[in-house]
């Protein structure tokens, strides 16, 4: 087996539209999935990982935060970070569109699209979540959700450029996402495909936003957030992956569950 230092120090591609923190996340996740970093093992420090990968400690910290959020790592205060003893399953999860969960009878939710990108070389956690081959192209949509003029959540949604959704429909959905006043990706998919979109569960974990996401939310990097991960399928094939960061000022988050 390849030793972890050699694996982690392999050059990270720098010419894609994928954020550097996501590419670092993918490299570490690949090491975990492949057993290079086995369950229960202690991983290198942020400084060591930065030196191995040739990136800043800030980039490493944000990548590790994502892995913490997804349940692949855990921390022991004063000791370090460790790979989880039991890795998260790769099941499908879905709830209603986030804007429906956050709106109130007197305060609707406004959506501001901050990014629409066709990522030609997608991060591992995105392709895994969408059931795609490694480095497949995916659409990425980032949206700030506000209520009463104040940001309450950040939504980062992905869907395949090909696969569960054909190219023509993929382009049409991307156009709808670019339109002013449009809803979230999940709301557009539900409107377009209705009952063909499969139901699932939702994964909720506590965390903090990190520098880039805190800037979009207008909050501090240490502000507590709920991290809500959703996936959904179209006719049984994965078509949707999202990670939402919900601030405490959003109030309670209600989720309807049926047996």
Automatic annotation (TrEMBL):
Annotated InterPro entries: Bact_HTH_transcr_reg, Chorismate_lyase_/UTRA_dom_sf, Tscrpt_reg_HTH_GntR, UTRA, WH-like_DNA-bd_sf, WH_DNA-bd_sf
Domain named HTH gntR-type: which ranges? Answer: 18-86
Cross-referenced PANTHER family: MANNOSYL-D-GLYCERATE TRANSPORT/METABOLISM SYSTEM REPRESSOR MNGR-RELATED, MANNOSYL-D-GLYCERATE TRANSPORT_METABOLISM SYSTEM REPRESSOR MNGR-RELATED
Which terms under GO biological process does the entry name? Answer: negative regulation of DNA-templated transcription
Q: What is this protein called?
A: GntR family transcriptional regulator
Q: Which GO terms describe its molecular function?
A: DNA binding; DNA-binding transcription factor activity
Pfam family, any one: UTRA
Query: Which keywords, in A-to-Z order, does the entry hold?
Result: DNA-binding, Transcription, Transcription regulation
């Amino acid at each position: 087996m390849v030793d972890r230092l050699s694996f982690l120090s392999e050059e990270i591609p720098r010419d894609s539209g994928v954020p550097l923190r996501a590419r670092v996340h993918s490299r570490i996740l690949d090491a975990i999935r492949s057993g290079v970093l086995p369950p229960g093992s202690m991983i290198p420090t942020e400084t060591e990982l930065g030196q191995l990968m040739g990136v800043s400690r800030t980039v490493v910290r944000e990548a590790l935060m994502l892995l913490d959020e997804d349940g692949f790592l855990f921390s022991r205060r004063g000791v370090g970070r460790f790979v989880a003893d039991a890795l998260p399953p790769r099941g499908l999860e879905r709830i209603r569109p986030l804007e429906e969960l956050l709106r109130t009878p007197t305060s609707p939710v406004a959506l501001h699209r901050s990014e629409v990108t066709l990522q030609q070389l997608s991060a591992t956690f995105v392709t895994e979540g969408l059931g795609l081959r490694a480095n497949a192209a995916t659409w990425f949509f980032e949206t700030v959700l506000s209520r009463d003029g104040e940001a309450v959540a950040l939504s980062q949604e992905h869907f395949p450029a090909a696969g569960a959704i054909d190219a023509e429909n993929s382009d049409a959905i991307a156009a709808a996402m670019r339109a002013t006043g449009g809803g979230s990706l999940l709301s557009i998919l539900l409107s377009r495909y209705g009952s063909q979109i499969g139901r699932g569960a939702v994964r909720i974990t506590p965390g903090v936003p990190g520098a880039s996401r805190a800037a979009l939310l207008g909050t501090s990097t240490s502000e507590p957030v709920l991290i809500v991960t959703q996936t959904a399928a179209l006719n049984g094939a994965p078509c949707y992956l999202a990670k939402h960061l919900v601030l405490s000022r959003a109030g309670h988050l209600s989720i309807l569950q049926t047996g």
